[in-house]
Amino acid sequence: MLVYRFRTWVLLLLVIFPDPSLSHFDSAKKKQMREKVRKMFYHAYENYMTHAFPHDELKPLSRSFTDSLSELGNLKLEHLPQNYNGTALTLIESLSSLVILGNCTEFERAVLWLSENLTFDVDARVNLFECNIRVLGGLVSAHILATDSTNRLVQGSYKNQLLVLAEDLGRRFLPAFDTPTGLPYAWINLKYGVMKNETTETSTSGCGSLILEMGALSRLTGDPRYESAALRALRKLWSMRSSLNLLGTTLDMETGEWIEHSSGIGAGVDSFYEYLFKAHILFGKEDFWRMFHSAYLAVQKYFRHGPWYHEADMRTGKATYWQLTSLQAFWPGLQVLVGDIAAANTSHREFVYVWKKFGVLPERYLLDHQMLHPTEKYYPLRPELAESTFYLYQATKDPWYMEVGETIVNSLNSYTKVEGGFASIRDVTTMQTEDHMHSFFLAETCKYLYLLFDDSFLVDRNYIFTTEGHPLPVLSAWQDRLPEIYIPSNWTYVKDEKKTKRSSAMSLQVCPALSLNAGHGEQLAESACHVPDARSDHKCFGDEECGVDSTSCRRRSCSMAGYCGLWLVV
Ligand code: DMJ
Predict the structure, then answer these.
(1) Predicted model pTM
(2) What is its EC number (predicted)?
């Protein structure tokens, strides 16, 4: 019996952490993969620059362009003014990737072009969330990289041009927040502000994923308005959670009422969770951690089903839709930052399985019917699986994740590479291509794949990546107490001077419990997944009285003898 249990454990460990010596990944192979990804990036970038720039995105089949920043969310192109040349979206999105690839010359050329030509004074209605994560995030991140002397950019040639552009854009965002609830409109006209009869419907991520970029802009410019606006919206959103600590997917920003009560960790919500945690890392506020902790526990309790995450009604916690979506694949990456590696690994494997089954990740897969969603069979070159794979490799150094990266690279090259760039897949069952290369292919997909095979950029640096893959450094100056002016009188934030500051996102492993006690008696953070048993003596009558183990993040169950524990069922 004992031998049997031992074997089970060995098998379990092999599944979670396979033997690295069995992998064919040595440094030569790693270099070869790095170069393969570099080639992919330039194939996409050069085609964009030749056929689409300065418009927003490349149409790789027709080798033309689309001004998609204004199209995101279904706005028709005829709403744009004549002679509109776009916002050079893909170029802005490529800036941080160019620095990571070490191409300072091209980066400098891009900065110069943007500072001389880019204007946001256009009669274009854009989606606030998309414009924030792609354009504002791209500019702010690139500004920080340009001023970082370790990047070997030509000193003296950079005169804060990107920050000037970012500030101009940030100012154009502000009218969207001028609402009774503090929740922003989803759409804003860059020239004229909020348009007449603008829709009041928005999403959870639309209101709750602005704090990194707008907070960074405030810290860089000293103008508190951006961070204040994003924070006010986030707090209002959080106040709308149900008693189960769940949120819905869509809401009316004017009334503060939920429209869609069902939600999960995918579309419309995903980056809300991501930003609560990353804001805590970047700005060091305990408040963000408290919100994230409650939200994370609720996700694990109400959405998680083994390795999968379904949707549930925020009011009852009852499961609604049993669907796997491509966007959900970011979750294991977030779990790595939280330190919940075992759970991250388990879910990641399932996404890899689905990727291998279809060749890429379909947008939506119906778990209950084991079939593809009839109208969402597409794969628009999304980065989420590559992103999680990168995080899991960083955390474990297990070469198996590089093999996953190789699979992704090979699929992208076989199914999506065309002469004019990389094309989205319209239908994963036929691999029919579609005439669109989203800017996030350069901002995220290529970047995460490159970083998977290249450790040099992150050595001795602490960065967090925004939801669009733009790096922001974790600076101690940003973790200091905010000047009073940042804090509206009805909010309170008092910094506890005794609290230890955390400096690295990757070292912030709050579960397993290795950081529960920093060794000097001070508590760093509670485990993210820990749910205590109902009774302090751990006695129970049923499983529902048992919590979640803080070190392994596994649900405890009630034994025959009436005690909660991690009982091994063999
Ligand atoms: C990106 O624009 C961002 O990652 C966003 O948060 C949602 N996903 C797309 C890419 O899939």
Answers:
(1) 0.83
(2) 3.2.1.-
